[in-house]
Structures are given as C-alpha cells and as structure tokens.
Amino acid sequence: MRGLSSLERVVLECIGNQNLSYEEILFQSGLQENVCFNIIQALIIRGVLKSEKGRYLINQNISPLMMEEMNGLEARKAESLELMEAVLDKDYDKIFRFQKVAMDERDTKIFKAMLSNLESFLKDAHQKAEKNIPLKNRHIVFWGMGELLPMMNQIMKGN
Amino acid sequence: MRLENKIIERYRQLYPKETLKESSARTGIQITRVYRLFLGKPMKVHELEAFEKAINEGMSSNPNHSRLTYVLEEASALLTNEELGKLADYFERRVENKKFVRSYIRPLFQETNIA
Hints:
heterodimer, A: mainly alpha, Arc Repressor Mutant, subunit A, 2 domains, 7 helices, B: mainly alpha, 434 Repressor (Amino-terminal Domain), disordered C terminus
C-alpha cells in the first residue's frame, strides 16, 4: 500500500480547506520549487488535488478506498516512521532521548500523568499559534512508552 | 512497458545528466542511434546488452547495492509475507520521495542534453 509520503501530506495540510495558489503552497510548505511542483502533479494524477482557476484545492470526492489508503493505520504508521527517522538522522538542532527506564507502579502513573499534561500543553500551544506559524516552521514532537518484554516478543514474531 | 523502455528508463535514472555523446561513448552505440533509442525505437539484442552492461557497471559502483541484493534474497526466503510487505512499503516510499526530489522524471528523450 503506497499511502501518502510525509512530503505529500505537508502539501495537503498546507491546503486544508482553502484553495491556494502555487506560490502560497510553496511558502507554507517550504519545499523546493521542483519538489513542490512534482508533488502537486502527483497528487492531481492520483485524484487527491484539483486545480481551479490557477489555485489548488483538495478534491472532496475522494473514494473511500483512496481515503483508507491515505489515512489508514498502516499509512499513518509509515508516515510517522518516516518523520521519526528524519529526526534521528538529523545531525544538528534535535532533541532525542531513548532510554530503558526502571519505574515502579507509582512512578509509571506519575509519568503517564505528566505525559497527559504535556499533551494538553501542546494542544493549547498549537491552537494559540496555528494561524501565525506556517507549516514549514512547525515542530515534530513525538513521545511514547511501552513494556520491553512484549516488544521483544513482537520483534521476534516480526509483526 | 516494453523491456527495452524499462532498460532505457533505468539507464536514465542511473545517468540522469549524461549527454548523448557520453551515452554513446559509454555504450559504444552510435550517437544518432542512441538518440533514436531514447525516443523509444526498438532495440537490437547487442544494444540491449550494451545498456544492461552500463547499468550493471553503474550499480556495481555502489558497494551497498550487492549487499542489498543479497539481503533481499535472504529476506524473501526467511520473512513472512506480511514482513515482506512492510519492507516493500518502506522501499516504495523511499523511492517515491526520491522521485519527487529529482527534477528528471521523464524516462525518455525529452530532457536529454545534446553535446
């Protein structure tokens, strides 16, 4: 399943419910000119985007099959991995910590509560600045936790 | 797509900025003939072999190519269908992203420089 690449998603997120000109998409996305052009063409060919009077908008009649292909769980997983990999590969200006942490039950609860606070903070921050900060200047933030043993089993099974 | 078109496309992906003169020198095929082949004319067997040889040479200059080929062969034998699907998805995405970045998309002659 091809899904959407993170680059294609950026173009779609820039457009959202609006209809934007090529220059506006270029500014919002921060993509190189030829890349932006190629992505727009690819999205038009796939029937996801359409152009009207020199402006681009998302096709509202996308088939459910295509929607599943673009927004299904597998597609989203692949996209998240793509961006996480890009963060890991970045040589400068990145924050990344990965640790195996021993936590008792109480501290696990505290940590989960802290994550919940973090999520609310990010939601508020996003709502506050969404209109003023173009997509290209946004930050990729990810977090998560899991127990090691089930994950090792999962790796062995290969799923 | 016909085999010869695939070969030309692959060749152009490996040597996207090559001029006709350079392609001719690399393959040993006359420049006017290379021009016609890039336009999609049918190939003779020795021309197909010349392009294939150039492609193999181009790929072998990348040391990780043979490693990847070996790993893929092993993966095909060992991994489940689902795991192979995930790998295929991963490769497909990498390739698609690379295609967006390359200004050269058309496989045939349109963007070839004549020198």
